[in-house]
Amino acid sequence: MTNLWEDLETGPNAPDEIYAVVECLKGERNKYEYNKDIPGVMLDRVLHSNVHYPSDYGFIPQSYYDDEDPFDVLVLVKDKTFPGCVIEARPVALMHMDDDGEQDDKVIAVPSEDPRYDHIDDLDDLTKQKKDEIAEFFRTYKNLEEGKEVAVEGWSDKATAKEAIEHAMDLYEENFA
């Protein structure tokens, strides 16, 4: 059985084009996580707060970030896909986040093969409303979970997102190659 974190490359042209493995779906409260030991997507929990994912959310294969997890990615989609779906995507921004004292940044990406997102190339192409919606979700999605604290610490451009992806690829190599 294929392990989507270990067996799938980071992307066809990483960090410019990456693969995003979808775990959580746009519009839902279910928090799925990929379990590499099965391998498969499992229900981790249902979000305690009355919020839903602003878009499809998952991880970048063969990446490892400072929070000691695969690097997170939110792919802007018009229609949700399904857990385990692999999306070829272009990074456009990086949202900086602290989750219980750990750096837990999120790559924001758009599908490479959806012309509805051809005009989005960098952070400045995202509307203020879209950035606010994403930040508000991550600021509040753990509010009702006991002892959890999350802080959104700002935004960076595509170049910074690509540097962070390269960092996550290097950490993966150091820890798992």
Automatic annotation (TrEMBL):
It catalyses: diphosphate + H2O = 2 phosphate + H(+). Mg(2+) 2 binds at D72. The keyword ATP-binding does not apply. It is found in: Cytoplasm. The keyword Transmembrane helix does not apply. Its main location: cytoplasm. GO terms for cellular component: cytoplasm. Keywords: Cytoplasm, Hydrolase, Magnesium, Metal-binding. GO terms for molecular function: inorganic diphosphate phosphatase activity; magnesium ion binding. Its cofactor is Mg(2+). Its EC number is 3.6.1.1. It is an enzyme of class 3 (hydrolase). One of its GO terms (biological process) is phosphate-containing compound metabolic process. It comes from the Archaea. Mg(2+) 1 binds at D67, D72, D104. Substrate binds at K31, R45, Y57, Y141. InterPro entries: Pyrophosphatase, Pyrophosphatase_sf. PANTHER family: INORGANIC PYROPHOSPHATASE (PTHR10286). This is Inorganic pyrophosphatase. The lineage of its organism: Archaea, Methanobacteriati, Methanobacteriota, Stenosarchaea group, Halobacteria.
